[in-house]
Each structure stands twice: as C-alpha cells, then as structure tokens.
Amino acid sequence: MNYESHGETIDITFRTSAKAFAFGEAPYLCCDLQTYLKPVSEGLWGVSIDAPKLNAAVLQLSIANLLGAPSPHRDFRGPDATHPRVTSEGPAVALERRTINSRHLQAARDIHVYRGRFCQRGLARCQVLYLADGASYAPFLNYVPSPTAQKRLDHLVIVGIDPPTDDDQFGEKRMGELLLAAGDSDKFNAFERFVTDEVIPLVEPTPVSRRARFVGGWSNGGAWALSMALAHSELFSTALVFSNGIWKPPSYPVKVKDLKIKFGGGTLEQSSKKFDAYAHQIAQLGPSVDEQYVVGGHSISTWNALFWWAIAPPDTERNTRN
C-alpha cells in the first residue's frame, strides 16, 4: 500500500492479485478512513480522499477484507498533528482478569480490570469507569499525556467488559448487546442486566457514589454507553461517548440527574457529519454535553486522544453544550 498527500487530499493505491474478497468486490480501506478502492489497472486499486486539516491528522490505513492474508497497513501522521499514533504493541499493562458465570447471559464472560495506584486495596478514593470491548482500552495507559492525567489515573479503576467469544466476523451478537437501535432488545436487555446486576457488584463490594461511577465506549460501545447513562442516571454521573454507532433518543422521559456526557469523534470519520446532530439531540434531553473533536478517523488513536481529554480535560479546550 502506498499513499501521497497534497494539500487536503490523500491518494492511496494498493496492488493485489486477489480476485475475491471477504466482503465486497474490491479492497476495503479501514478503519480511520472507510471506503472501497476503485480499479485503476490490472491488479492496481486506488482512491483519492478529501481530508480537511490533513496536516493535523493521525491515521492508520489498512485493507480489511483480504482473504487468507494479513491486512497491509501504512501509518500517516501529519506535521501539525498534536496527538500520538497509538498501537497495541507497547509494554503490557497489568490487568486483573475475572470470569463471571452470568445468570443473564448464555455463557461466561470475562472482564478486565485496571486499578490505579490508590485503588489497589479499596475504592474509597477512586472513580470507576465501565467500558465495552474488554481490554481494548489497555494501549491508552501507555500514552498518559501529562502529570495531571497520571494523577487522575492513579485514582481510577477501569473495567473493560468482553464481547461474546462465539461471535461471527461481523460482530452480530456484540451489536445486539450494544445497539438498542439495532432492534434486538433481548440481547441488549440481558447485557444491561449483566452489567448492573453482576459486574458492578463484583467490582464494587462496597459501592462507590454515583458521582464516582462512569460508563463509556467508542464506536458501537459509545452508543451503548449513552443508552446506559440515560437509562441509569441513578448509577452513572458521566458517560464517555466517542464515535458512537447508531443511536435513537429514548421514547420515554429521561431523568438525567445532572448527567454529564463527554462526546466526541474523529473529524474524518464517515459519520462525522452526524456528530453535531447527535450532540444536539442529547443536550435536548437534559444532560450537559462537553464536545471534543480530533483530526483523525475511526480508530484507537482518535479514541486515545478523546479518552485523555475526558479524563483530564485541559481548561482551554472545554466546549459545553447545554
């Protein structure tokens, strides 16, 4: 895979002899920038993408749908970028893995718990953040951006909840658990009860205050976090909602109890044009909505930047919608 950038445009080419793909009929660029490549000549595919503020972008460019072959990728970091390119290849982060034999789910499910320095023996001085998608947050802990952020991390417990282990390649079961708007309310409700009835009591033998309990996620996990926060404002004071999947406002009255939503995404995501409408809809329901957008796509580098903004936001970047 090769790319050339000029101004606010990036040209991507990819050569392959493949005639068939895992899905679609052409190589699919994923996941910061998401689109099918077009045929250029025999075995050569390409696409030209307009990317506003490209010089400030951090991107990983990869092909997602090759059959029987690893996904080739290239990294791009513009000269004006202010956030790091994040990978999962850094030092291993010590996480506590617990298996829960759930009475609500069809199979046992693992959670992955990080305990900050002051949370090893108890939670009296700590905040607890519940996230979808297992240990996917672990790389963030190798990119602590400031001493202030480290101090917040020292008082933080992070709980990542695994998706189903028997899911298909498209994550259909996971989507059912996380996306209430997808229509599978049975899967969503079972996962909701798993979190409220089993995960939280296990992590918090002595419950923390609502003020100290957060919920969060990115992509479909962001939509789940928003649904959970709106449905359970008695449990959660804050939700981290990044690059959220499909979401519909609840049809029932929402009791927000001074609920805070930390909302954001990548400006180069396919769904970025919907972010403003989503933020407005959420604010109309009553929560305060803090917004932050990163020049990037649908990827871990974007979500790392947003995670640290939400955990330890610089005062100069606060943008609140009420």
Structure characteristics:
Enterochelin esterase-like enzyme; Esterase-like; four-stranded antiparallel beta sheet; 22% helix; alpha/beta; nine-stranded mixed beta sheet; AB_hydrolase_fold; Immunoglobulin-like; Rossmann fold
Fold and architecture overview:
The protein is α/β, with parallel strands linked by helices and 322 residues long. The strands form 3 sheets. It has a 9-stranded mixed beta sheet, sandwiched between helices. A 4-stranded antiparallel beta sheet has the order 1-2-6-5, with no helix packed on it. The chain folds into 2 domains: 76 residues, Immunoglobulin-like (Sandwich), CATH 2.60.40; 219 residues, Rossmann fold (3-Layer(aba) Sandwich), CATH 3.40.50. The longest helix is centred in the middle third of the chain and has 19 residues. The chain is 22% helix and 28% strand. This is Enterochelin esterase-like enzyme.
